[in-house]
Amino acid sequence: xxxxxxxxxxxxxxxxxxxxxxxxxxxxxxxxxxxxxxxxxxxxxxxxxxxxxxxxxxxxxxxxxxxxxxxxxxxxxxxxxxxxxxxxxxxxxxxxxxxxxxxxxxxxxxxxxxxxxxxxxxxxxxxxxxxxxxxxxxxxxxxxxxxxxxxxxxxxxxxxxxxxxxxxxxxxxxxxxxxxxxxxxxxxxxxxxxxxxxxxxxxxxxxxxxxxxxxxxxxxxxxxxxxxxxxxxxxxxxxxxxxxxxxxxx
Length: 250
Known about the structure:
Elements: H1 2-12, E1 18-24, E2 28-31, E3 38-48, E4 57-64, E5 67-78, E6 81-94, E7 97-101, H2 105-108, H3 111-117, H4 121-124, E8 131-132, H5 137-150, E9 154-157, E10 162-164, E11 168-175, E12 182-192, E13 195-208, H6 210-221, H7 223-249
Parallel strand pairs: 2-13, 7-9
Antiparallel strand pairs: 1-3, 3-11, 4-7, 4-12, 5-6, 6-8, 10-11, 12-13
C-alpha cells in the first residue's frame, strides 16, 4: 500500500509543474477630492521544480471591478422622435475590466478554458437569465462592450504584459478617475498551449477618503441633512455670484 501512495503522489504532482509567485504595487486605492486615476503594477515570476516543458508559456492578467446589473436599451426613431424600443437586462457587468496578455488572446487561451475561468469580455459579462423585451441579446451585449471600451472602462491590452525569458513578468494597469468603490479582483493566469496551468487571485480595495468619504456617508446615512446642506450651499453660491456680478457692473 505504501508504494501505491507514492505513485498517487507522483500523479498528483506532475514533473515540470509551474506556478505563479506574484505581487502588487498597492493593495488599496484611495479616492479623494483631487483623485484623477491610479495605476497598479502587477509583477511576479514563474516558479519551477523542473525544466520547463515544451510549448510557449504565456501570462494573462485581469483586473475586475464590482459588478452591477445593467439594462441596455436601444433607441429608434418613430414619427420623428427618438424613443426606447427594445431592452435587454444583464445580470451583472463589471464596472471596470482590464485584461492584459503576453500575446493575442485567441492564440494563448482556448475556448474551453475561457468558458471555465471567464477571462474575455463576452465571458465576464454574466448575461445568463437576461430578460429580453425584443431583439437579440448578443447584439445588446456587444453594444455594452463597445460603449465601455470607448469610455476606457473596459480595456483589452494584448501584448502589454512584459515577459522575460519565460520567468519574470510585469503588467501596468491604469485605473480611470471614475472608479466605483469596492473590491477589485486581480487574477493572474499561466497558460501553455491554450490551457491554464496555474492561476492566482489578489484583491485591491478602492475606498473614498477625506471629504469624499464624509459626503458619501452623509448622503447614505443621513440623506435629509445632506439635502439641506446642498440647498444651503446652492443658496450661498447663488448669493455670492449675484453679489460679485453687481460689484463688477458698478
